[in-house]
Amino acid sequence: EIDLAKKIYSRLSREKDAYIRNLALEGLAQIFDHQGKPKEAYRVLLKGDITRMHQGKHLFWKLAYSEQEFEKMVVYATEIYRMHPTFETALMNAKACAHMKDIPFAFGWLNTARQFDEANNIHWEDLMSDPIFSSSGICASKILI
Fold first, then answer.
1. Are the CB atoms for 66 and 58 separated by under 8 Å?
2. Within the chain, how many helices (H) and strands (E) appear?
3. What pLDDT score does 139 carry?
4. Residue 143 above 60 pLDDT?
5. 41 and 10 Cβ atoms separated by less than 8 Å
6. Which of 41, 57, 70, 112 is deepest in the core (most CB within 10 A)?
7. How far is 113 from 93, CA to CA, in rounded Å?
8. Pairwise CA distance, residues 124 & 143, whole Å
9. What single-letter DSSP state applies at residue 54?
10. Between 145 and 27, whose confidence is greater?
11. What pLDDT digit, counting tens, does each position of 83-95 carry?
């Protein structure tokens, strides 16, 4: 049945109607992602109009992080956080901004992450010693205050 779904989504992904095409690409990408093929899922999403997607946008954001395409990820950082206001989202946004050497935004996202209950289970000194943060120049003492 998955193969049939792939065929249908593949056929629909060639439609001229942008709405149908994007829905098909989202569906196809989700199948690849569930099959443990994130690179294929990411490649499929790149063929669509990410700005018009919903679930595909969130998946694209996650896959952009895993592909270390941080510049693509930070474009949607705030929107994804609005859709999924979680500790994980804020922390991933912080890491992406740190990779991009955007210290004010990385710092802001870290402070946002600290507002969640899950933050109490994080050893912040260890997190801040991660090369992602230490190489970006974010000072751990500012986060820990």
1. no
2. 11, 0
3. 55
4. no
5. no
6. 41
7. 9
8. 8
9. S
10. 27
11. 999 999 999 999 9
Q: What is the Cα–Cα distance from 10 to 139, expressed in whole angstroms?
A: 48
CB 39 within 8 A of CB 67: yes
Chain position carrying tokens 């193969």: 3
Say if CB 60 and CB 82 are below 8 A apart: no
pTM for the complete prediction? 0.85
Q: Specify the DSSP element, H or E, that contains 49.
A: none
Tokens (6 digits) for 118: 């899950």
Amino acid at 43: R
For 99-142, write each residue's pLDDT tens digit.
998 888 998 999 999 999 999 998 877 787 777 777 666 655 45
Distance CA 83, CA 72 (A): 17
pLDDT in tens, 11-28: 999 999 999 999 999 999
